[in-house]
Amino acid sequence: MPAEWGQAKIEILALRDEILGKLEQGILIRTIYEELSASGRITMSRRSFYDRVKRLRTEASKPTRNTSAQSTGHTSKPIQNYLTENSKPATSNLLPSLKAEEQEELDRLWEGSSDNTEETP
């Protein structure tokens, strides 16, 4: 039986925090879909779920000034201050889908590759 128009969006929005939390824990989207579908908490197709979670992740990664400043009660720091305070190289933001350990390894390899370059005569 087909769901009503807009039902998938409602289901995703209702489970937004839970889905994003599980993704941050490293649980695969496929596993999340199977659990939610088996328990009857979502009725959409797998493809629709993947597309909507992709949009959720994109929206969640976009910081909004008004929302972040209002929710924390603090004003956001300028990017330059953030980079100097955290002493991580600018390359740490190249691949936001990597886990912290993977990103550190990539940064280490990236920095090491510039040291190993040899000039040919």
Automatic annotation (TrEMBL):
This is Conjugal transfer protein TraK. Residues 55-121 are annotated as: Disordered. It comes from Thalassospira profundimaris. Residues 63-95 have a biased composition (Polar residues).
